[in-house]
Amino acid sequence: MVIFGSTNTDGTGSAANLSQFNGQMIDWEFDSVAYYMHENFKFETEHVSAFIQNISDIGAFGVNVTNHGPWNGEGLKELFIRDTGLYNISETTEMNVEGFVDVNIALSNVDAWWGTFTLNINGAKRGNVDLSSFEQNVDLNVASYSNSGNWGNLYTIATGNGDDTLTFSASSEQSNTHWTEFSVDLGAGDDRFVLDLHSADSADMTRFIDGGDGFDEIALFADSIALDFANVEWLNAEDSTVELPLTEQQLASNGDDTFGLIVSNAQVEFADSIIDIDVTALSDAQYAYLDGLDIDLSAEDYFAVTAYGSDASYQLLMNNVDDYAVA
Ligand SMILES: [Ca+2]
Ligand SMILES: [Ca+2]
User: Fold this and answer.
1) Ligand 2 center to residue 286 CA distance, Å?
2) How far is the CA of 237 from the centre of ligand 1 (A)?
3) Of all helices (H) and strands (E), which one includes residue 291?
4) Which domain of life is it from (predicted)?
5) Residue 106 forms beta bridges with which residues?
6) How many A from CA of 325 to the centre of ligand 2?
7) CA of 194 to the centre of ligand 2 (A)
8) Which residues contact 296 (CB under 8 A, 6 or more apart)?
9) For residue 327, what pLDDT is reported?
């Protein structure tokens, strides 16, 4: 079921409220002859085009919904997608949505043909994506856009037990991603979150990632003001210009239980409550842990770092320790 429309006219509605009674439900035109050809199902109005397409010769389908009309235009603001009534949803491998302000997508019955379901959301200001029941991997790309700091800039996203990759980036150079907020639950599995947005407009903004069970990475391509996270094992900065504040709460709620939190490249700024830092060479066990991980780092570049709070200490494994004394 795919519905678009505008229910939010006074700041109270959202894409979640869309129904066939207050929005326009896409009625796919099914051509049985072209079932295994391209563009099997088509829908077209003045501003919105949509199709379900066979993207392989083995019956894997892609769903595309695009607003070509004005962004935030009357009747074109929100998009709502559910499994119900969507042809071949169980064989859907890819979904692309573009040009809407507010998207609400919840799917459960997808069994992506080649093991990964790809969802690309382009140009939305906010959204709600629930793929929490998924067992297969999800590759979710959000290229966000915001026109102002008001009216909601929050993405709420949940993925499931697969090894998921969620990337937040800008839809264009004018996309104002310093206003983009997110609250993300990546579920179980070895997940990766890529943060490629402008630094947050203020430290009060919501930018939260729960890595859940499994070995989870946050890849940082920008400073991480306002970033909060839990159950994450690896913070991996693009380079040493990325500044990474770490609080005791974050040190307590992230990292492997035995070996602690891995931090690559970033300039860590420990909170004021950290009263001492101790840097030593890796123990054999720490080296073996890092070396045994199936990730792209060289264990020989790393040090063991212990951060001491007033009544607790925290273990980290870091390669950028220039600002701290090496024992
Ligand atoms: Ca997952
Ligand atoms: Ca984890």
Assistant:
1) 18
2) 21
3) helix 284-292
4) Bacteria
5) 82, 130
6) 29
7) 15
8) none
9) 53
**Residue 146 in 3-state DSSP?**
coil
pLDDT of residue 39: 63
Beta strands in 68-213 (DSSP E): 78-82, 92-98, 102-106, 116-122, 126-131, 137-144, 154-159, 165-170, 181-185, 192-196, 207-210
Low-confidence ranges of the chain (pLDDT < 50): none
For the stretch 172-217, pLDDT in tens is 888 999 999 999 999 999 999 999 999 899 989 999 999 999 999 9
pLDDT at position 184: 98
Assign residue 123 a region: left if phi > 0, alpha if psi is -120 to 50, beta otherwise?
left
CA 40/CA 24 separation, integer angstroms: 20
Separation of CA 234 and ligand 2 centre (Å): 9
d(CA 289, ligand 2 centre) in Å:
15
Looking at the DSSP assignment, which residues form a beta bridge with residue 300?
A: none
Pairing verdict, β 2-5 and 78-82: antiparallel
- Extract the tokens encoding 60: 């894997």
Q: Looking at the chain, how many residues does it have?
A: 327
Give residue 38's pLDDT: 58
